[in-house]
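A protein record pairs a chain with a discrete description of its three-dimensional fold. The following entry can be read in just this way:
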Amino acid sequence: MISLDPDVGEYGEADIPIEDGEIVEVGTGLSASNVDEIVASDHVVVLGFVDSRIHPA
């Protein structure tokens, strides 16, 4: 997981809980109940990255 926020830095592995479409925490060993889990171990997660494929109408 790579963050553009220097206070967050980079993690080899991280938990990223999301509520109402917003990231609420970044860290390791986080736990939560009643959530959907997405295993992104084969992907690079970049927090704060803007989807540049969206074009205004």
About this structure: The chain has one domain: 1-51. Strands lie at 2-3, 18-19, 22-23, 46-47. The mean pLDDT is 77. The chain is about 0% helix and 15% strand.
